[in-house]
Fold this protein.
Amino acid sequence: MNARLDLTGLGRFAGIGERLARAVTVASVSLGRSLLWLMAAIIVGCSVWMLLPLSKGNGTEPVKPELAAVEPAAPGDAAAVASPIAQASAELDRLKVSSQTWRRGGLGSKALVTFTLRNDNDYAVKDLEIVCAFARRDGSHLTDRSRVLADTVTMKSRKTFARIPVGFVNVNADQAKCSLVAARRA
C-alpha cells in the first residue's frame, strides 16, 4: 500500500516534468536559432572586412617620401624674422624626423601620428611645430594639419612621440607625411 501511494505522487511530478521538458526544448531551439544568426553575422562581417583594400599609410610601415612636405622658412625671410619664435628658433637642419607612422582614431575621424625626432644640436629644443600633409591613395593632396608640442628634446638625442593627435582628417586620406617647421631653444 505504501508503494501505491508513491506511484500516484510520482504521476503528479511526471506531468510537471513533461511541461518542463517541453519548455526547455522550445528555449534550446530559440537559443540555437539566435546563435546561428550571430554566427552568420560574424562570418559575413569578417568576409566584408577582409575584402576591403589595405591602406598604404595606416600601418607601421614607413610613409612614402614622395609626399609633399612643408619646407622650413629661409633664414632671411621677413615673416620669420618678425615672429618672436624665429628670434629664439633652433637650427632646423640639425633636427630630423627619422621615422613616422599614422593611424586613425576617434571613430576614424582623427589622425594620430607617431614619429621619432632626432636632435643633433648642441642644445635642447622645445615648442616643436609639426605639419602633416595628408594625401589620397593616388598621391593627390587633401589637407594639412599642424600641431605644436610643448615637449623638450635634449641635445644629441632622439625622442619618440606616440599617437599625437594632429586633428580631423579627410575620410579619403590614405598617406601622411609630417615635417618639422619650427622649434625653439630650450
Notes: The chain has two domains: 1-52, 78-185. The longest helix spans residues 2-51. The mean pLDDT is 76. The first strand starts at residue 95 and ends at 105.
